[in-house]
Amino acid sequence: MQDPLITLTLAIAGLSGLVIVAVTALRGWNGWLDLKRAELARQAGETAPPSTATRIEVADLKERIRKLEAIAAGVDI
């Protein structure tokens, strides 16, 4: 028969190894989820349509540029 102390030591070592692997896997999983959340937040920020005020301002700037180009070309508006 085997010594019960050896069996107990092997069981504790195996359980400790299993706990270490499980904790490492859970930390990796949480890190992966955080990465995906950050990617989704970044994509949501990029795809947001511009506000009405921003669109009006851009249109106004385009009109000013068109007028300045016409002045530079010598065209009378």
Quick summary of this structure?
The chain is mainly α. 84% of the residues lie in helices and 0% in strands.
Please tally the β strands and state the result.
0
General shape? rod-shaped
> Per DSSP, what share of the residues sits in E-state strands of 2 or more residues?
under 5%
Alpha-carbon distance between the termini? 106 Å
The arrangement of helices and strands along the chain is: HH
Oligomer: single chain
* Model regions low in confidence, pLDDT < 50 over at least 5 residues: none
Helix count, DSSP H or I runs of 4 or more residues = 2
The computed structural class is mainly alpha
Largest sheet: none
Helix content: over 70%
Radius of gyration: 33 Å
User: What's the pLDDT, averaged over the residues?
Assistant: 89
Number of domains: 2
Secondary-structure blueprint of this entry?
Elements: H1 4-46, H2 52-73
Task: Characterise this structure.
By secondary structure, the protein is an all-alpha fold. It has 2 domains: 1-46; 50-77. The chain is built from 2 helices and no strands. The longest helix has 43 residues, at 4-46. The protein is rod-shaped, with a radius of gyration of 33 Å. The relative contact order is 0.05. The mean pLDDT is 89.
